[in-house]
What we know:
Blueprint: H1 2-8, H2 14-22, H3 33-37, H4 41-63, H5 74-98, H6 110-116, H7 123-151, H8 155-182, H9 185-204
Residues 52, 55, 85, 88, 164, 167-168 line the site of one fe (ii) ion.
Amino acid sequence: MERHVSRYLEGVAVDIVEKIKALPLRSRTPMEWGPSALADPIALLIDHAFLEMKAAQNAMELMTRWPKEWTPGWVETMTSVARDETAHLAQVTRLLIRRGGQLERGHKSFYAAALRGLVRSGKTGETLDRLCVSALIEARSCERFYVLASTTADEELGAFYRALFSSELGHYKVFLKLAYKMAPAEEVTRRWEQMLDHEARILAEQEPGCRIHSGVA
Ligand SMILES: [Fe+2]
Ligand SMILES: [Fe+2]
């Protein structure tokens, strides 16, 4: 991987590389994944649009689920994430339509569905798990946008993925921050560590293809 990184990274700021290295993900996407996911940019943009839409819906759904009597910063975080995600959805849809594609009605993400399957039922555990899953999807998306930005030869797509990078990084951090506000630190850390392991396993089980969370061929 290192050999490819040095070749592809021209134009990607050094601090971004450091931020990617600092992500706690248990597995790393090889640079080879980028060109294979970009083999059909329209399919990738459609998948991406649904990812943004679901991220916005998830934030709005979580908005009224503050776990205690009142959790400061909860509503502000969720509304801010939802606003960002709808803006991303608008951007990705614009790119898609300009390139001759269009949104489809239905969409399945086996990766996100498998992650949601880890969520325990019951008030505190459920909300904590949902925050962890949200943070994981953001962190992995961030890593994937970095690989896409680093490997695409398409300037417009490269700039788009680079622009999304910081936003998704911020979302990953705020979801995790809220998790630490709602439960004892040891409990959150223990669950987060388990979830990180599950995420790497679930991602490794995905089929390759033109999707943001596809497997590696
Ligand atoms: Fe987004
Ligand atoms: Fe996000």
